[in-house]
Amino acid sequence: MNIFRLAGDMTHLASVLVLLLKIHTIKSCSGVSLKTQELYALVFATRYLDIFVTYVSFYNTVMKLIFLGSSFSIVWYIRRHRVVRRSYDKDQDTFRHLFLLLPCLVLALVINEKFTFKEVMWTFSIYLEAVAILPQLVLLQRTRNIDNLTGQYVFLLGAYRALYILNWIYRYFTEEHYVHWITWIAGIIQTLLYADFFYYYFQSWKNSVKLELPA
Asked: Which residues form the signal peptide (predicted)?
């Protein structure tokens, strides 16, 4: 554990709490992509297959349970909650997210560090997480006018990944034989997808105006 890893984890946790705060207190999921939330639920479900058989630390287990529980809770809220689901903009959230699954699975089967079921699923989750934000970014571009909590949620998600890149760099120079190029490449791609959003987010913050993305 190092400061960058801890900051990344806390930022990731904060992004989930911000989204849950919006959905639970305001009873609205406007501007939130169900497609992205379903992809994240699948990411955590395939990444943490070892949660009940491999013990790393109390911290590690708690974080896994939080991300698993929160991701499926958000999907349930948007799909099933009698009030929240009314605010879901199905007509705008039309990104065909299922088409991301097959390429990620094929890539995981072809390019992995060890050809075992658990390792392939873990690699699949890494590839899928890299592109899971795409439906959310597309939805924000279509709606353009973004509420404060949704903007903060996406910003924190991007910041979490950027902090993890710093964590990888730190570990590369401080730990012997620390090389995970699959994770690094996927993480860099994921961070680059946020670049446009970051630009407009900081512009809106600097000029004290409401966040809007170009169509």
From this structure: none
As given in the structure block, the two tokens for residue 90 are 């199905």
CA-CA distance, 37 to 156, in Å (whole number)?
15
pTM above 0.90, yes or no: yes
H or E stretch including 28?
A: none
Q: How far apart are CA 88 and CA 91, in angstroms?
A: 9
SS3 146: coil
Q: Which two tokens stand for residue 147?
A: 């509420």
Reported as type and span, the H/E element at residue 200 is helix 195-207
pLDDT tens digits for range 156-199: 999 999 999 999 999 999 988 888 899 999 999 999 999 989 99
**Coil, helix or strand at residue 189:** helix
Summarised one tens digit per residue, pLDDT across range 120-131 is 999 999 999 999
Count of all residues that appear for the chain in the document: 215
Give SS3 for 112: coil
Distance of alpha carbon 152 from alpha carbon 159, whole angstroms: 10
CA 141 to chain centre: 18
Q: Phi first, then psi: give them for residue 212, nearest 5 degrees.
A: -135, 140
